[in-house]
Amino acid sequence: MVFIVGIIVSFILYIAIGAILSKNVKNTEDFYISGRSGSTLMVTGTLVASFLSTVSFMGEAGFSYEGYPIPLLILVIFNASGYIFGVFLFGRYLRRSKSLTVPEYFGNRFNSRKVRLIAAITTVIGIAAYLVAVAQGSSLLLSEIFNIPYAIAIVIMCIVFASFTVMSGAKGVMVNDTIMFFLFSLAAYVSFPFIIKATGGFPDAIMKAANNVEKPNIFSWHGVTGSGAYMGSPTDVLIWAVILGLVWGSVVAISPWQSSRYLMAKNEHVAIRSGVWATISIFTIYIFLHSSMAMINNVNSSIYPTEKVFIWAAMHLVPSWLGVIIVSGIMAAALSSCATFLQLIGSSIANDIIQPFSKKKYSDQKLLSFSRFSMIIVTVIVLIIGIWQPPSVMWIGYFAATLFAASWGPVAFSSVFSKTVTSLGAFWSIIAGFLGVIAGEAIGTLIKLPIYLHPVIIGFILSSITLYVVSKFGVITEEEVSYQRMLHQQPMEENEKQEMAITKRYPTYLIISGIALVIITFVFYYLPISHA
Predict the structure, then answer these.
(1) Contact of 190 with 322, CB cutoff 8 Å
(2) For residue 293, which of 306, 274, 276 has the smallest C-alpha distance?
(3) Separation in Å, CA 91 to CA 97, 111, 440
(4) Most buried among 129, 203, 403, 493, using CB within 10 Å?
(5) 294 vs 528, which has greater pLDDT?
(6) How far apart are CA 347 and CA 371, in angstroms?
C-alpha cells in the first residue's frame, strides 16, 4: 500500500506543477524551450532525466542482472562522454542558432525546407518508437505495483505524462525533470549499500556474485559465460560494448531529446556546465545501479522478466521508505522521458511540418493549439501500439536511438564544421542513414549478422557516404555560408568575465570526479574480485 500511495502522490505533484506552470506559457518559445531560461541545475536535470528511463532502470538493469554489468559499464564510458563532445562540438552551436527545435536548425543551416521536413519526420518516427518502449516499461511497473492489468496501467501512464506535458510544454517538463532527476538519483545511490548488505555484506556480496555457479564470470569484463551467455563470445561482447557505446555517445551528443535541452539554457556557459555535470551524473548512477543489480543473484537468480529486478529489490531487499523512493524514482525516470519525447513530437509537428509548409503564417497561439492537439493524437497512437505490441523495453529503445546516431550524426557535426556539405547531401544523408538502420534490422531478422555489421554501422556508413557523394552535386548558397559563419561567432554575456571564470573550473570538476570514480571502482570492484 505504501508504494501505491507514493506513486499517486508523485503523479498528483507532477500534474499540479504542469497546471501551475501552464499559466506562464505565453508563446511558442515558452512552450518549446521554456523561454531559454534554464539554469545549470535545471538543464542538467532535464538532460539526465530525458536520457535515463525505463530502458536504464528496467531494461538495462535486467541486462546487468542477467550477467552483463561490466560490458554495460564499458559501454557507458563512451556513452556518457557524449555529453562533453556533444556540447562542445554541436550543442553550443545549436544554442547560438536560436532555433526552437533541432529540425528548424537543420532547415536554417542548409536554407532548405526539405531538410527541415525530413529531420522533423525522422524525429517524430524515431522518438515515437522510443516513447512506446518507455511507456511500456513504466506500465509494467505500474501494473506490478498496483496489481492491475497491463492495459489499464498503460492508459493511466499515458494520461499522466500527457496531461502535464500538454498543459505546460517545456516549462513543465524542465521543472518536473529536475525533481525527477533528484528522485531517481537518490534511488540509485542510497539503494547501493542496502542491496550490498542484503546480499551478503561488503565485500562478501561482491565475491559471492563473482563466484556464482548459475551465472559464472558475471563480474568479468566480458560478462557471464556458459549456457546463459547469449551475447556470444567474450570478443563479441567487447566489440558490442564499444560499438554501442560509440553509438550512444553519438545519441547523447546529437539526438533531439538531448541536444534540444541546450536550447533551454539561458546562455552558452550554462549549456557547457550542464554537459559536464550530466557526464558525471551518468557515470556515477550507472556504477552504483548496475553493480548492485548483479549482486541480487546472490539471493534470487530467477527473477522473470528480468526487467523487474530493481522493482523486486525495492520490495524485498531494502526498507519500505527506500522502496518507495526506488519505485517512485523508476516511475519518475519513465515519466520524464515520456514527457520530453511527447513535447518534442508536438513541437516538431507544429513548428517543422505544419508551419513551414502552410500557405499562411500562423500565430503563436494557433501553433500552440496544433502542438497540443498533435500531442493528444500521438498519445492515443502510442497507447494503441503499447497495448498491441508485446513489451521489449531495452531493445526497442536501443533501436530507436540508433536511428538518430546513423541518420543525424554525420549531418549534425558537418553542419557546424564542414564548408563543403550541401543541403542536397544533408537531405539524402538523413534518409540513407535512417533506411540503412531499418534495412539492417530487417536483414538481422533473417540471418545473424556479425557484430561489425550492426544495423547502426550500416546506417552510419551509408549516411556518411551519401553526405560526401551527393554534396558534390549540390550548390552552397550565400545564406548557408553566412549562417555557418554566424554559428562560429561566440556570444558575449554582460558579465562574460565572471561567467568564463566559473566555466573554467569545470575541467577540474571532471578530473576530481574521475579520480573519485577510479577509487570507488578499485574499492568496490578490483579488491573484492581479486580476492574472489
Answers:
(1) yes
(2) 306
(3) 10, 20, 29
(4) 403
(5) 294
(6) 6
Name the band, by pLDDT with cuts 50, 70 and 90, for residue 397.
low
In angstroms, the CA 423 to CA 105 distance is 12
What is the arithmetic mean of pLDDT over 157-177?
Answer: 92
What is the C-alpha separation between 132 and 385, in angstroms, rounded? 7
> The C-alpha cell of 151 is what?
492495459
Which candidate, 407, 382, 384, places its Cα nearest to that of 133? 382
Pairwise CA distance, residues 226 & 176, whole Å: 44
Quick check: 394 pLDDT over 60? no
Q: Which of 481, 433, 407 is closest to 103 using CA atoms? A: 407
Give the mean pLDDT of 397-423: 88
DSSP secondary structure code for residue 228 in this structure? T
Three-class secondary structure of residue 452 per DSSP: helix
What grid cell was written down for 300? 534470487
- The long-range contacts involving 493-496, CB below 8 angstroms and separated by at least 24 positions, are 493/267, 493/269
1 or 263, higher pLDDT: 263
Residue environment code for 164-188, b if the CB has 16+ CB neighbours within 10 A, otherwise e: bbbbbbbbbbbbbbbbbbebbbebb
Counting residues of the chain whose pLDDT is more than 90, the rounded percentage is: 57
pLDDT at 390: 64
Omega within 30 of 0 (cis) for the link into 71 = no
Indicate the angle between helix axes 113-146 and 2-21, nearest 10 degrees: 150
Burial of 301 (0-12, 13-18, 19+ CB in 10 A): middle
Strand partners, 265: 38
Q: What is the DSSP-derived secondary structure letter of residue 296?
A: G
- For residue range 471-484, list pLDDT tens digits in order: 998 889 999 999 99
Question: Is residue 248 predicted with pLDDT exceeding 90?
Answer: no
**Farthest CA pair distance, the chain:** 72
DSSP per-residue codes, 231-252: T-SHHHHHHHHHHHHHHHHHHH
pTM, rounded to two decimals? 0.91
Give the CA-trace dihedral at 271, 273, 277, 278, to 10 degrees: 20
- 129 C-beta neighbours (distance < 10 Å), count: 18
At 395, is the pLDDT very low, low, confident or very high (cuts 50, 70, 90)? Answer: low
User: Residue 255, CB half-sphere, CA atoms under 13 Å: how many?
Assistant: 31
Cell matching residue 45:
536535470
Check if the beta carbon of residue 73 is closer than 8 Å to that of residue 282. Answer: no
The CA distance from 20 to 12, in Å, is 12
* Residue found by looking up cell 556515477 in the block: 284
Taking the chain, what is the end-to-end CA distance rounded to the nearest angstrom?
40
Do residues 311 and 148 make contact, with C-beta atoms less than 8 angstroms apart? no
Whether the Cβ atoms of residue 227 and residue 214 lie closer than 8 Å to each other: no
**27 dihedral zone (left: phi>0; alpha: psi -120 to 50; beta):** beta
Closest-CA residue to 206 (of 129, 296, 85, 131): 296
